[in-house]
Amino acid sequence: MNKLFHLLLAGAIWLPTSQICAQEKPKAEERVKAPTPVKVQIVFTEYDGDKKVSSMPYSFTVISDDKSGPANYTTSLRTGIRVPIETDAKDQKTTYMDIGSNIDCGIKSEEDGRYHVSLIFDRSALYPNKSPDGERLVAEPNGLPLVRQFRTGGYLILKDGQTSENLSSTDPLNGHTLRVAVTINVLK
After folding, report:
1. pLDDT over 60 at 22, yes or no
2. How far apart are CA 103 and CA 42, in angstroms?
3. So what's the pLDDT on residue 55?
4. In this predicted structure, which of 41-55, 124-138, 157-171 has the lowest mean pLDDT?
5. Strands annotated E in the chain
6. Three-state SS for 26?
7. pLDDT at residue 68, as a whole number
8. H helix or E strand, kind and range, residue 21
9. Max Cα-Cα span within the chain
10. What is each CA distance from 30 to 23, 26, 33, 68, in whole angstroms?
11. DSSP code at position 168
């Protein structure tokens, strides 16, 4: 009986070990795709009718993820100024408000050469209170500055070298249109 027990025990140990060895060999289709650097260019362009008022380009690199996993690689860009805002005139208390552009971007690659681009934009700017001719544009409540805001988040599907211009917004006070163009280029 002792001999039979040792044979059964040896067989039980041998079976899983052979299965483990067979599982250790990676199959070609299961190999993880290496992360790829992708250059992202975003251009915010403001128009007054057909006339271009301003153009603000931003450029950065994002490492793309393999399509099978969650987005672990993202790039964040923060640029702007801090504007002092008086919160209590009596006690002369001041706080600061961030004005500028904030961009968060993540990219996932697909086997067919497309890239899923995840973007979050947050752009703010101080409203001018007078036109170049000195005309008052916007009534200022209590003399505090007015801030215009553009926020959006979404997903784009792009190929290497492709540009998407499908984001736009109209300013409710002056009628200017803000258009956003996104271009990606895979870095080799």
Report:
1. no
2. 9
3. 94
4. 124-138
5. 36-48, 51-64, 74-88, 93-109, 114-126, 147-159, 163-170, 177-186
6. coil
7. 54
8. helix 2-24
9. 106
10. 12, 7, 9, 10
11. E
Q: What strands lie across the sheet with 36-48, from one edge to the other? A: 51-64, 36-48, 177-186, 163-170
Report yes or no: 53 and 46 within 8 Å, Cβ to Cβ.
yes
CB atoms < 10 A from the CB of 180, how many? 19
Identity of the amino acid at 157 = I
Q: What is the rounded CA–CA span in Å between residue 169 and residue 151?
A: 10
Nearest to 146 by CA among 154, 138, 155: 138
Nearest to 115 by CA among 81, 52, 164, 176: 164
Residue type, 172: P
Q: How far apart are CA 182 and CA 188, in angstroms?
A: 19
Q: What are phi and psi of 166, to 5 degrees?
A: -100, 10
